[in-house]
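#lab-general

N.A. 3:47 PM
ok so I finally got the sequence cleaned up, no stray characters, all 80 residues accounted for. can someone with queue access submit it? mine expired

B.Y. 3:52 PM
send it over

N.A. 3:53 PM
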Amino acid sequence: MNDKERAKSEWWNMIQKSWTWNRLTQEEQDRFCKQFVFVNPKGTYRQRWEVLEIFYKGFLTALDYKPVGWRETDRNTPNF
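B.Y. 4:20 PM
back already:
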């Protein structure tokens, strides 16, 4: 597998460790996964990564994502 072909799998590994992913419900995670399998961006590694970022940000926007305090249950837990 060459560098650009790894973009999707490396991006996916990163997202699953993100705080936004951990704030999704199981149903939302499942819905994202069902859509994600059909996303196969073309281009360089960076271009593919950027397409995946846009896809995920669009998904979060549809869930009314806010960069600060989104679905925060403990105000002392940092968002990063």
